[in-house]
Amino acid sequence: MLIAEVSDKYDLSQDTLRYYERIGLIPRVNRNKSGLRDYTEEDCKWVEFIKCMRGAGLPVETLIEYVKLFQLGDATVAARKELLIGQRDQLLTRMEEMKRVLERLDDKIARYEQTIGAKEKALMAHDS
Amino acid sequence: MLIAEVSDKYDLSQDTLRYYERIGLIPRVNRNKSGLRDYTEEDCKWVEFIKCMRGAGLPVETLIEYVKLFQLGDATVAARKELLIGQRDQLLTRMEEMKRVLERLDDKIARYEQTIGAKEKALMAHDS
DNA sequence: AGTTGACTTGGAGTTAACTCCAGAGCGTAC
DNA sequence: GTACGCTCTGGAGTTAACTCCAAGTCAACT
């Protein structure tokens, strides 16, 4: 699978895919005889995983660390688990904060609705 | 209220407070006779609101727009409401994505737990 | 043989959101 | 009256995460 197809499939620019590989955010992709990247299924799974984690805001640095640990093999299983737990907890914290803000926004919107409603009523009264 | 106190109260650096004011993320704060910022209750409410919204990831640009609309007065009530609705929807979308990622992380962590459990079991067997 | 189009690399540029700094003003403490 | 501490302004620097670019390679057409 060439880079163009992967780019289309996961909606990541070719530049981003090359960048991710360069910084070790995904393991190195093999090149074919012409020197072009030839993504395996495995590579694609990494791309998908990283895209997913980045989408939730996990930092690039942390994900690089995860990939590094992964490449070190079975000895790092515990460390990888701990890393994921740390990220999971932070994610949860952020979600909780966002939930509070969501409620606050809903409140504020409801109040704006009231304001507008009141104004319309005033106009109606003026009309009649 | 001087900037130091506001900085302490909301855990925002003085530089950040000045920066927010400079770019219009909070309305201009009055200066006392010596030229120092003297935050009113109103100013503090803005600081708190902006800090809260930024904490949930609402973009600075959008919040500046909101403040601008606010300063234009009652004529912009509807526009402000629409702006908030837009941000609310985006926030919700991001939260949903994060929720999916959270579940995926939990899954992955559970699988790591199994892996580690299995390894321990193997060690036990070897011991006996 | 030459042009086209996709891809390569290394490196520079961009964007958002701060963060830091130099030089100066003001008010109190010695 | 000068040293100290707090704050001021305008502008430069930083960080994270891309994004863009120039120069070159390679295979496939024409």
TrEMBL record, chains A, B:
It holds the Pfam family MerR_1. SUPFAM superfamilies: Putative DNA-binding domain. Residues 1-69 form the HTH merR-type domain. InterPro entries: DNA-bd_dom_put_sf (IPR009061), MerR-type_HTH_dom (IPR000551), MerR_fam (IPR047057). Residues 88-122 form a coiled coil. The lineage of its organism: Bacteria, Bacillati, Bacillota, Bacilli, Bacillales. It comes from the Bacteria. It comes from Paenibacillus montanisoli. GO terms for molecular function: DNA binding; DNA-binding transcription factor activity. Keywords: Coiled coil, DNA-binding. This is MerR family transcriptional regulator.
